[in-house]
Amino acid sequence: MEYKQTRMGYVHGLLELARSIPELVVLDADVAKATKTAEFEAVYPERFFNCGVQEQNMLSVAAGLALEGFLPFASTFGVFATCRAGDQMRNSVAYPKLNVKIGATHCGISTGGDGASHQSIEDIAIARSFPNMTVLVPGDYEEAKQCTIAAAKFKGPVYLRFGRDAYPVVEELHGKFEIGKAKFLKGGNELTIITTGIMACEGLIAAETLAKEGCDARVIHMPTVKPIDRQAIVSAACETRRIITVEEHSIIGGLGEAVAGVTAEVCPCYVLRVGVKDVFGESGESNELLNKYGLRAANIVNAARQLLRMSI
Fold first, then answer.
1. How far apart are CA 74 and CA 98, in angstroms?
2. Model confidence pLDDT, tens digit, residues 132-156
3. pTM to 2 decimal places
4. CATH fold for the domain made of 3-168
């Protein structure tokens, strides 16, 4: 299986876009080597601005550039973009509905050795709570590149979420990318696994295991968490009556609650959330952390077995 970094998909998307969009600029908060936007700086130094370790100011600068007709991509770690600069994201970008794109890397528990202070496991919840904000969470390198290109074409604020480590390349994700639309990775009628981000791979592996146990599981991938594809969720809820959500994020405020909110309003059904269970992370290798915090196919399979024991 091939492994690639989603943050590299982001940068390669920016480099491709820059050739045809002269107003595209990249802002940095002194982490260009880590976000990989140093590669953009090397090719387009006159369109790259290091704002220093001042994430709040960076988003304010991005807002000003957007007002002047530029297409700014402001890049930093997810925890700094949403927590440290949350006020500017809300009041300077989302509230006036400016055409600013926020490229957030090092998201999720798999950031690893940086530990809890840098592991952004609440960023989806924060970003999706702001009106006007679109939230994109790609599943692999290619989809990261696709969502970056789609974000540039979209008019309005966008939060793009990327990881640090290399993750599996998932061929099933590489079809057409459309903001607000789910991707159907596998059909099934007994239960539905809904993934976002790098959990797409784990969802497919879980479905294979369940198939061997006689369970026909549907797999849906949500690269857009906001606006979420309500129709895909409603169809899954009404047709399979059991849903498991899977995210490399806290179970509070992320994909799981977004899906549960839709089903509660339209077609109530069982929804189990696989994610980080309302705790902070810790330092460690990414694979160790994904195992420790229950973000593996085996955890999805266990949730499915639990659901299948429930009467509907």
1. 13
2. 999 999 999 999 999 999 999 999 9
3. 0.97
4. Rossmann fold (3.40.50)
